[in-house]
Specification:
- By secondary structure, this protein is mainly alpha-helical.
- It has 12 helices and no strands.
- It is globular, with a radius of gyration of 19 Å.
Length: 281
């Protein structure tokens, strides 16, 4: 599993939870990175500034008591952001990053700000979010229908927070005073499309997290096989958004999210069995 720098909680590692950064320290880390990206005129600042704004919005909703389980959502928010931040810092150092982020961060200089925001959103939601959910929902919790319903309700409530952020947006952050027509995410039609894409993708994420959870119960090899499939599918979807052309029309046709096919569970189990056989040799 790709892991944020502070590790991930698991069924037998509850002590890791105490080591997670606070939401305040997460925002401070993001603020410091944004200063550096601005100073360097780094095009990655467009998604980063957008994500920082949404992170603050989630923090405000947490403070207002808008979620069923405040402590769980805060853990999820910090772990989720960690996947992106670690990828960003690795890429800035010239290190290896997962395929979706390699495509998003490697987009050419001609890619406009709105497209860069969409690339970052797509990589983070489709690839990082299922893994983040798995990190904060144990196998035992996946087996508890009542608790899982609460987790899913809080997951869906994030959609409302994101929709409110889109409604309040007047421009892609970092583009004030120099927006070109393709960057106007912010006309009514584009705002409506952005909200629809987010809801569609995040609904698929919940299903993908459950597929990954089933693979995790089958063993490490099965899990890694499904995670590799997730990476392949997510990388392909980000690559589609890089191609020239009307990106919002393309999203309307293909969708923003990806789906891990359930039939892959058999392949994952086979991979786990093969790994066990090789270990017995």
């Amino acid at each position: 599993m790709s892991r944020p720098s502070w590790g991930l909680p698991g069924d037998d590692d509850s002590g890791v939870l105490a080591e997670l950064p606070t939401l305040e320290s997460l925002i401070a880390r993001m603020d410091a990175l944004l200063v550096q990206l601005r100073e360097q005129q780094d095009p990655r600042r467009f998604f980063h500034a957008t994500y920082l704004r949404t992170t603050r919005a989630v923090g405000a909703e947490l403070a207002a008591g808008g979620f069923l389980d405040t402590a769980w959502v805060q853990r999820w928010d910090v772990v989720f952001a960690g996947f992106y931040l670690d990828a960003l810092e690795a890429h800035r150092r010239g290190g290896r990053v997962p395929g979706p982020w390699a495509v998003a961060f490697g987009a050419g200089a001609a890619v406009p700000p709105l497209r860069r925001v969409l690339l970052g959103m797509n990589a983070h939601i489709n690839y990082d979010l299922p893994q983040a959910l798995l990190a904060v929902i144990s196998d035992a919790e996946f087996g508890d229908a009542a608790l899982l319903a609460r987790r899913e309700a809080d997951h869906r409530h994030i959609d409302q927070v994101l929709a409110a952020v889109v409604d309040r947006a007047a421009a892609v952050p970092e583009t004030a005073g120099r927006r070109s027509p393709p960057d106007r995410l912010l006309g009514p039609a584009n705002r409506l499309a952005a909200k629809r894409f987010l809801v569609e993708a995040r609904a698929k994420v919940w299903g993908n997290a459950r597929v990954l959870a089933r693979a995790r119960r089958q063993g490490e090899a099965a899990y890694q096989a499904r995670r590799a499939e997730l990476e392949r599918l997510a990388t392909g979807r980000v690559a589609e958004l890089v191609r020239p052309g009307p990106v919002l029309l393309r999203l309307a046709t293909r969708g923003f999210g990806i789906t891990l096919p359930a039939r892959g569970d058999t392949a994952a189990a086979a991979a786990a069995a093969q790994a066990r056989q090789e270990g017995d040799r």
